[in-house]
Amino acid sequence: MKGKSGWVLLAGCVTLLMAGVIYAWSVLKTPVKAEFGWTDTETQMCFTLTLCFFCLGGLLSGLISRRVTLRVRLLAAAVLVIGGFDLSAHAEGRLGLFYLGYGVLTALGVGVVYNAVIACVNGWFADKKGMASGAMMMSFGFSALLMSRAFQALLSGMGWKEIYMLLGTVIGLVIAASAFVLKNPPAARTAAETEKDVSTREMLKTGSFWKLFAFFTLLAAVGSTAIGFGRDYFRSVGMAENAAVTLAGLLAVFNGLGRLFSGWLCDRAGLSRTRMVTSAVAIGAPALALLACVTSSPLLGAVGLCLCGFSYGFSPTVSAALAGGFYGMKHFSLNFSVLNLVLIPASFMSTLAGRLYETTGAYQLALIVLTALSVVGLIVNMSIKKA
């Protein structure tokens, strides 16, 4: 990694490290929920909206990428993020306004940034897209841990409204600064590596795309749902409170490491072998977590759920690598944003898992379902062929 491409990757990682704030919602919601007395359902709906509009922001960025410059898209995203946090801070208990601020405007801005930055930086790394994607995805994944810690530290001396406005301003300024640092690579660096470039319309007509969509929906559903258990799961297998809280926080680290490792694996072992490793980890992780429930083993529980976080990190990195490897780089921005829509159906799995836990009072049934979904994912994965 030399010259300008190295600086572009660094700028992309820093920008996504800040933009990943939407995944810190479990901490950011706490004082808001306490002040206004909102229910778990109401706060969970905000996160559901956030994921949906994050995906839609990426799709919008891809759709306009050929008509609107990278700089303009990033500057517009900065305005959305700043405005979204500011509106949330001034919602004064009006749930709809808070949803509009955090769940719609901020999420849209982050989605635009995510799509624009990944498409730009990957163009500079024609031979190492896996490594570049992994580094950026890791930064995005680590953001939840960084922002959560920063938010908790600031709460000791500031009100949550002031922190929201501060976070929005700082994140927005970093995004705005990246608009003047990040540039698309020279035309020679964006030549397709694949046998042909496939447009989004053509991609949607291929069986390979729909199989990839099904596979990554299942992968993201399993990983995100298991991570959502967090502290409560660790307590259920007999872990002490302090250890449970610490490990729950480390899940974000394993998520980030999974993103980096899968990117490295794509470059070293190729897409086909990486897909098989992805399925193997995705099956083994919830199966170990299930075994821990049956045997009440804190050690197995720690390994199983941390592997779930690790496997979840594979999803965005491998999907980005496959979008470029299967369909070329010419239409990558839009193709990747369409494939990234898997997060919308995947988000509903956590709701189902929560209902299963409420019904049974234990995690076994939910983990059996997650393991079964991983096996189905393997079957779909084995049938995928390049377009």
How confident overall, as mean pLDDT? 87
- By oligomeric state, this entry counts as single chain
Give the termini distance in whole angstroms: 30 Å
Radius of gyration: 20 Å
Q: Can you summarize this structure?
A:
The protein is mostly helical. 81% of the residues lie in helices and 0% in strands.
Structural summary, described in words:
The protein has 387 residues and is an all-alpha fold. The protein has helices at residues 3-19, 25-36, 40-64, 70-89, 95-123, 129-155, 160-178, 200-204, 207-236, 241-269, 271-295, 298-327, 332-339, 343-360, 364-382. Helix 9 (207-236) runs parallel beside helix 14 (343-360), helix 9 packs antiparallel against helix 15 (364-382) and helix 14 (343-360) runs antiparallel to helix 15 (364-382). The protein is built from 15 helices and no strands.
Q: What labels describe this entry?
A:
81% helix; mainly alpha
Describe the secondary structure blueprint for this structure:
Layout: H1 3-19, H2 25-36, H3 40-64, H4 70-89, H5 95-123, H6 129-155, H7 160-178, H8 200-204, H9 207-236, H10 241-269, H11 271-295, H12 298-327, H13 332-339, H14 343-360, H15 364-382
Helix pairs in contact: 1-5, 1-6, 1-7, 2-6, 3-5, 3-13, 3-14, 4-5, 4-7, 5-6, 5-13, 6-10, 6-12, 9-10, 9-11, 9-12, 9-14, 9-15, 10-11, 10-12, 11-12, 11-15, 12-13, 14-15
